[in-house]
Amino acid sequence: MAGSEVKKMKQEHAIHNQVTKTLPWWTWILPGLVCHLGTQMALHFEIAPGTAIWYPPIALSMVMINWWGPRILLGLYVNAMFSAGLWDLPRWYFWPLYALPETANVCLSWLFFTRLGKGKCWLPNVQETLRFIVWGMLIPITIGNLYLHIQFTMLGDFPAAQVWAEQLYCRYLWLSDPHGSIVDIADPGDGKTRPGSIARRVGRRLGMLGGSARQTVH
Fold first, then answer.
1. What is the C-alpha to C-alpha distance for residues 48 and 184, in angstroms, rounded to an integer?
2. Checking DSSP bridges between strand 46-48 and strand 51-52, what pairing results, if any?
3. In angstroms, rounded to a whole number, what is the distance separating the alpha carbons of residues 202 and 205?
4. DSSP labels for 156-177?
5. Domain boundaries, the chain
6. How buried is 134 (Cβ within 10 angstroms: 0-12 exposed, 13-18 middle, 19+ buried)?
7. Is residue 153 within 8 Å of 101, Cβ to Cβ?
8. What is the pLDDT of residues 53-85, one digit of tens each?
9. Alpha carbons 173 and 198: distance in angstroms, whole number
10. Which of 21, 54, 57, 119 is deepest in the core (most CB within 10 A)?
């Protein structure tokens, strides 16, 4: 029984690998368009420079890369690089660096789950779903988020003392990351930010979005 299951698993992976090799040309282009659309949506949830409470491109890219392979990284990287200015990160010469954590985050998802873990991207059972959550999401997100903080600190976007002290003090609330998939929502320029003020800022932002939606309806 075990031998037949192993044989079936090998056949499934062989079919998936063959399909991946024969994907149509538009699978190179569509990821970039999807990521850009997700970025435009996320901009409505921006609460601080470089920070939003919802950022779809990472989650969408994690799905696409485990189905279509690393080809989607090109569109993801290009979108992240040219969208950096939209997140109030004006130093254009650092835009190629700002795009790296997001791209590394998604790449690690494919590397850990599909490439090394031989995971099934179609998630046929609970076991595969749990494996994807751990190896395809949680671990890559944690590594990517750490990389993001180190890079922001080295580039001077976050003061080093503030970043690490507030991480230990739980002053940063991990919700959604414009350059990864989870990031702090505290204002990087405010050394006196407290969890209460973060919650109030999120509430005000959501209230503004709700008001805009109501005005649009009327």
1. 10
2. antiparallel
3. 5
4. TSS-HHHHHHHHHTT-S-B---
5. 15-217
6. middle
7. no
8. 888 999 999 999 999 999 999 999 999 999 999
9. 8
10. 57
